[in-house]
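[job 4471] stage=fold_predict status=RUNNING
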Amino acid sequence: MEIKSTDRKSRGIDGLLLWKRGYTSVSADWAMADTSGASETSSPHYKFNLIPPPSSPTGSDDAGWPRARSGHRTFVDNDFLYVIGGFNDQPADVIMKELWKFNLVTHTWTRCNIPENFPRTLASFACRSIGNGSFIVYGGTGIPFGTELDETVYIGRVVGDDVQIEQIHPIGNKRGCYGHVLVYDPVRNKTFSIGGTDGTQFKLDVHALYRNDATGRWVWEEYATYADDIGLYRMEAVLENDSIYVFGGGTTQRIANFETISVFNIERKVYEIVHAEPDPVHGFPIGRRCHSLVQWGRQVIIAGGCYDDARTVLGCVWSFNLDTHVWRKMDDLPNPVFFHDASITAEGQMIIFGGVASAPRGRVADLQTLWLGPPTLFSTALAKMKKITNVTLSGSEHLLSDRLNLTRHVYSESILPA
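[job 4471] inference complete, writing structure tokens
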């Protein structure tokens, strides 16, 4: 195994976290937070907004809110947050073979209709969005964990309230796994799978999924094979040019730290080590697995997770600058969780759903949201209009994508009677 240490040069200012202004989410609205006197090295005043289920702490399908879960995945498009799969142990162990969507305008949930060929190993699987309600699912485990693995790749699409699934059986030497992560490379048009476990061995393998233009066949291409010596489970990753940055993760014996970041060089097919810089006040994040990650501009945001074999639930949120490699501590989660997932909208709203909280709460069905930047004027005006006029909107409509019709709808319902 070849691992190189490299000191990468900074390539820009500290982006988002050098703003001398911040935004606080208040339900659907946003408001500027007071950051007067903040230095260019301190974090702006970002605050999370906690949205619990309306009926019970664990949610309820009957109440129009997905049940509490862990090990699920989420993604977003222009109109919806989507929640796929997950695990719940109440009243008995169950894998949730389902897909929910959350309307980003109306804040209502819809449980979608799924086909018979929907994925079944939906705990600690990997998922990535391919736009417009479409997604790829690979891996995961059934119950008991590690005993049922699936090597099928699922390409799905949400059309209205229905889910369409195409099953893909790629050629190549790639075994089923769980606790891994998927990263898309638009230049190579390949989806990389990194790490995970088959239930007996932890790995940091790197494989690339792509469609061969000449044959029309889907292929798993092996880039690197690493086993237990540096294997990781439930880490997160982002693509940066020809490099895949791997954040956190662990095994039953160890947890990866954040003082050094493992970076896979796609061209050279080797892992390199990047040395990070600490927050000048708070130092480095504590090592963790089962956390979430989103990317906003040049910032990578990690939230939550666990340490000490899940005995310590973490609520801290940190950002890592891809140019300077500097860590910055942000606001804490209102409800610390692990085995949750997070996505980020095009306007910069980070949305966390579910996960496992500290005892006695256990698995939760909370939404936790954070604006990393100001919403568009359109979204802000719409939120205000809804509050003032009590406009009712359908939770199944593509409201943000079809702005002309939405504006007409809001305007027609807002006209006061003579």
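[job 4471] summary: The two ends are 78 Å apart (CA to CA).
[job 4471] exit 0
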